[in-house]
Amino acid sequence: MFVIITYDIAEAKILNKVRKTLKKYLIWTQNSVFEGEILPGKLHKCVSELENIIDNEEDSIYIYEIKNSKNIQKNIYGIHKNFDDTFI
Amino acid sequence: MFVIITYDIAEAKILNKVRKTLKKYLIWTQNSVFEGEILPGKLHKCVSELENIIDNEEDSIYIYEIKNSKNIQKNIYGIHKNFDDTFI
Fold first, then answer.
1. Residue B60 and residue A74: Cβ atoms within 8 Å?
2. What is the ipTM score, two decimals?
3. Coil, strand, or helix at residue B76?
4. Domain boundaries of chain A, sorted by first residue
5. A25-62 pLDDT, tens per residue?
6. Nearest CB to B77: which of A47, A65, A66?
7. Which residue of A29, A30, A66 is in closest CB contact with B72?
8. B2-69: what fold?
């Protein structure tokens, strides 16, 4: 399936850990967005890791699952960023 | 159609204008995310407005269009934010 994961994380230390976790599974495409194809089992693993990292009173993570990537179209305005080479 | 719009905007003044524009059409659900159902004509109008606001060398806006909202599932971890009452 195709997923888009967006996040608002209050603390820099937690933010760093969230990004490190997401980088193992998906592509970092915008400051607060990761996306890509992922198998349900891997997504489940990724979510378990994230749940152990975030502060449930402060942080928020949205996971949008799209069953078939044919059902989604992405249009980019402005620059096309890629943070995958960013050291975190 | 259902859309998710995410953005990275460098300057606060531009960021404010982008949010004000998006608020006319969609729901503000995370710091850098708006989403909701929108008619193609309205989306076209929204995009035209955004193109006139952003700096094409610095900013980026991603628009994910999902033809049928049945094809997307959203899971929330942590807090469920809503910025719609935020004054901008």
1. no
2. 0.91
3. strand
4. 2-69
5. 999 999 999 999 999 999 999 999 999 999 999 999 99
6. A47
7. A66
8. Alpha-Beta Plaits (3.30.70)
